[in-house]
Amino acid sequence: MTGFEYKPEKPKTDRVAAEIFLYDAGVLLTAMDELMEKEGKLEDYGDQLIPYLVRTEKVAEHRLDGYWRDMGTPESYHQGHMDLIDGRGLVFDDPKWPILSAAPRRLPGYVGDGARVAGSLLAPGSRVEGAVRRSVIGPGALVEAGADVESCVILGDVRISSGARLRNAIVDAGAVIGGGTELDGAQLDPEAGVVVVGAGGSVDTPPAS
Predict the structure, then answer these.
(1) pLDDT tens-digit profile of 127-153?
(2) What does the buried/exposed string (b/e) look like for 127-143 if buried means 16 or more CB atoms within 10 Å of the residue's CB?
(3) Does the global pTM surpass 0.85?
(4) Residue in 107, 137, 108, 133 with CA at minimum distance from that of residue 121
(5) Closest by Cα among 138, 135, 144, 133 to 157
(6) Would you call 189 exposed, middle or buried from its count of C-beta atoms within 10 A (0-12, 13-18, 19+)?
(7) Which of 3, 124, 128, 209 is deepest in the core (most CB within 10 A)?
(8) Would you say the C-alpha torsion 92, 94, 97, 103 has a positive or negative sign?
């Protein structure tokens, strides 16, 4: 490695560190002692330690192929779900790499007679009577007949009432969306492209990054 930037405002590349580091214990302890002596304090590893080791020692990288995404913002969280729908995300049902989790013990997702569902993932216990396109519907969530959902991430036990129209939104668990609701995250926040609906129904646009 010849350089390391920690959370730069304008990254020079799209390469990121997975923050898994292996140190030689002697080199690490010596570097910390030297930094303390020169600078009088120890800062965050990314601001101080790693750049110092890159300058003074031999630091090597090991690249990991595959899908990686920082999920620390609403827009990246939303995009991760859209990638999963589009087949660009992780393969969660790979029999060679089973994921053991406390999945809810519920019946498979239900699609009503008059429902329209396309390009979506339905969690166990969910029920769709309305229209759902390119969305992820969480466990126990209900999309009533006459409701329309597109490009959304709907968490557990959400109720979307008849007449509601949601686009490009993340809806928190337990929220109840009224029938007169019309939301499109791409219109409300063109930069982020997504809005967040809290459990109490409040609507927040992600802060500017």
Answers:
(1) 999 999 999 999 999 999 999 999 999
(2) bbbbbbbbbbbbbbbbb
(3) no
(4) 137
(5) 138
(6) buried
(7) 128
(8) positive
